[in-house]
Design brief:
The chain is an all-alpha fold. The chain is built from four helices and no strands. Helix 3 packs across helix 4. The structure holds zinc ion.
Amino acid sequence: MNMTCREVIDFLMEYLSGGLSTSERAEFERHLTDCPDCTAYLRSYEETIKLGKAVFADPGAPVPQDVPEKLVQAILASRRQDM
Ligand SMILES: [Zn+2]
């Protein structure tokens, strides 16, 4: 089976947290080698997670001033896609 870009994005969180099975992970990574769009998306996502970690470690905490607004919006937008 081949993953679609949509599935890759859906799996992104689990991939980054190590939640995928070995076969899912292999499919995920194979898609990335063939798809520059998803590779770019993954990079920006990892960057977003890194910068936004403090925010999401504590949902009640105020957004730190040094997290760019557009990155916060990117995370919120990716969450909305799941609904
Ligand atoms: Zn893709």
